[in-house]
Design goal:
Number of strands: 16
Helix content: 25-40%
Strand content: 15-25%
CATH topology of one domain: Immunoglobulin-like
Oligomer: single chain
CATH class of one domain: Mainly Beta
CATH architecture of one domain: Sandwich
Radius of gyration: 33 Å
CATH superfamily of one domain: Immunoglobulins
Distance between the termini: 86 Å
Structural class: alpha+beta
Length: 468
């Protein structure tokens, strides 16, 4: 698209002489390697989170996988805890806690999640490490990008992408391992008999990891992630943010190491641009707070290192608040953070209490609708039911079943106790008989399930008994 540069002095438009585009071409960002206290903290977070992701599917607990979201069986195993569809409220509880925690920590210290724990950040770090290992430091990677294709360049690029693909496939397999038992999954993979859905999700998650962490990188944070757009709603003037001290640093400029830069009217910033070179999103923090900043604090480590070399105090770029920069009092705990903390505490306690009070057994009674009732030769009325006993515990239990609500009613079955394994749904058809004179028409009846190992644990389920 051609565009005029503006009106001529007489008011007439200047004819376009060069094509102009409204879209800037994407330039690949090669972040410079840096070391420092925040870099060590970020590496610790990356290794810790990756260890959880890749190792947890291999953990064993009571002869089974410790963490398994078994969708076909509709039950989630989390170490000794078994959650069923009836326990969906607890999943909602966890999601609400995570959401409020994000708001709470963002109000206190900005985008800590983005800089240290977001999956996009974690896996991008690994892919950049692989790229740096194969292609060299920042200067060598930029030089390789600009160099014409050759056998050496092709070999390096092929090696890098092969390592990326291998790591992405391992990531996809580990992800599916949370939903399919990992021993079964690896055995199916080695025997080339992996099921269609398991293969699809392995390849899908692998491809997502490969493209997001290998190609898109900072573009996910800048253009795709909604958090960058609404984070400002959680910020205020007392929120800790990574910022450049303009009063101290400006005017910036180069100078000799031992020069009296104050006499030249210069600030502490030597304009080395190292803070820009280390930024994974390619921004200049000296231009102020920007939504592209993911608060990884790499610029703080870079600037502190430069300040150490030139003999200036650290903290030209630092974690601080807008109020502190202006010399005003800064408060970490304020009404907003108190509200978030109070809500977090209340919701956690309520959910934890509900989890502790959660019954480890459930009873489902379905009356047979093929026949309303049957009269027996012993002057009794008989109804047929299908009873399902759900043992939510991880250990096996013995349960005893009885009926109440109608005088003389009893269960006609070969036995009245059943041993149900942990996580098992035990289904048993049975007949309930009641004296013909004890009931007329429809009447409520109550099935009482008692745990023989702990009589205080009992479940009562109401059903309907039909009589003439």
């Amino acid at each position: 698209m051609n565009a005029a540069r503006g009106p001529a002095p007489g008011g007439l438009p200047v004819p376009p002489d060069e094509p102009a585009s409204f879209y800037a071409k994407h330039v690949k960002i090669h972040p410079r390697e840096i070391s420092g206290r925040f870099d060590r903290l970020r590496r610790f977070a990356v290794f810790g989170l990756l260890a959880l992701f890749y190792l947890v599917p291999w953990l064993r607990w009571d002869g089974r996988q410790a963490v398994l979201f078994d969708l076909p069986a509709r039950k989630f195993w989390i170490f000794g805890l078994v959650l069923w569809p009836q326990d969906f409220i607890f999943l909602t509880w966890i999601l609400v806690l995570l959401g409020l925690s994000l708001f709470f920590f963002t109000a206190i210290a900005g985008r800590l999640w983005c800089g240290f724990a977001c999956p996009q950040t974690v896996w991008t770090e690994v892919f950049v490490w692989i790229e740096r290992f194969v292609e060299g430091d920042r200067a060598k990677r930029i030089k390789l990008d600009r160099a014409p294709w050759s056998a050496a360049k092709l070999a390096r690029r092929t090696t890098k992408h092969a390592l990326w693909v291998g790591f992405a496939l391992w990531t996809g397999l580990s992800f599916v391992g949370f939903f399919v038992p990992m021993p079964m999954l690896t055995q199916d993979l080695l025997s080339q008999s992996m099921g269609g859905w398991a293969l699809f999700w392995t390849l899908f998650y692998s491809a997502a990891t490969y493209f997001n962490a290998g190609y898109l990188r900072e573009q996910v944070c800048k253009y795709m992630c909604p958090y960058a757009r609404f984070q400002s709603a959680m910020f205020d003037r007392d929120t800790l943010i990574i910022t450049y001290d303009t009063n101290r640093g400006e005017p910036r400029g180069a100078r000799a190491r031992n020069a009296d830069y104050h006499a030249k009217g210069l600030g502490d910033c030597v304009d080395c641009t190292v803070c820009v070179q280390v930024c994974p999103t390619g921004i200049d923090i000296r231009q102020g707070l920007q939504y592209e900043c993911i608060a990884c604090a790499a610029c703080i480590d870079a600037c502190d290192g430069v300040m150490d070399k030139v003999g200036y105090p650290r903290g030209l770029i630092r974690y601080t608040t807008q109020n502190a920069l202006e010399g005003k009092p800064s408060r970490t705990f304020r009404p907003r953070t108190f509200v978030y903390a109070a809500l977090l505490g209340l919701i956690f306690l309520a959910g934890f209490a509900g989890l502790m009070a959660r019954k480890t057994v459930a009873l489902d009674v379905i009356r047979d609708r093929n026949a309303l009732y049957q009269e027996t030769g012993d002057d009794e009325i008989e109804n047929v039911y299908n009873v399902k006993i759900l043992n939510k515990d991880s250990a096996a239990h013995t349960y005893r079943l009885s009926v109440e609500g109608i005088a003389g009613a009893k269960i006609e079955a070969e036995r009245h106790t059943w041993r149900v394994d942990g996580g098992e749904v035990y289904s048993v058809p049975l007949r309930v008989e009641a004296p013909a004179g004890a009931v007329r028409g429809g009447h409520d009846i109550f099935f009482v399930l008692t745990d023989a190992d702990g009589p205080s644990r009992r479940v009562v389920e109401k059903a309907r008994f039909i009589a003439p």
